[in-house]
Design goal:
The chain is mainly beta. The protein has one domain: Rieske [2Fe-2S] iron-sulphur domain (Rieske Iron-sulfur Protein). The chain is 0% helix and 37% strand. It has no helices and ten strands. β2 and β3 form a beta hairpin. The protein is globular and about 35 Å long.
């Protein structure tokens, strides 16, 4: 197996091992339309998925504690602000405010023990701080 090399168009987020099945998310800073925002990646049913940390109903972060998005049964992404319930596999809002809408998905790739993010036109990397 050949090792993957980072391309200028994708960004290493975390080691694959950092995302436990239906566990805490990897939360990171991004720019949404040039403004600071947060995003997250988590593992659900063996697949890594990522979304902006913004409820579709109200522009608010959804985690009830840093990196904690899933309900107590670890089945749904729940907005801590008002209980909107999302399907982790596709970000579809199945209950509560925003029903029928989807979270803004991020293009994540898992390869060679690493999770990579491919930024899009709307969501770009945050400026690195040193």
């Amino acid at each position: 197996m050949t090792e993957s090399v980072a391309s200028p168009s994708r960004i290493a987020l975390c080691d694959s091992a950092a995302l436990a099945e239906r566990g805490d998310a990897w939360v990171f800073d991004v720019l949404l339309w040039g403004r600071p925002a947060r995003a997250f990646a988590l593992r659900f049913d063996g697949r890594v998925v990522g979304y902006l940390n913004r409820c579709v109903h109200v522009t608010a972060e959804m985690d009830w504690q840093p990196g904690r998005f899933l309900d107590t049964q670890r089945r749904w992404i729940i907005c801590a602000l008002h209980g909107a319930t999302y399907e982790p596999s596709d970000g579809y809002c199945v209950a509560g405010p925003g029903r029928g809408q989807r979270l803004h998905a991020l293009d994540l790739i898992e390869e060679a023990g690493q999770v990579w993010w491919q930024p899009d036109r709307d969501v770009q990397p945050a400026e690195a701080t040193h």
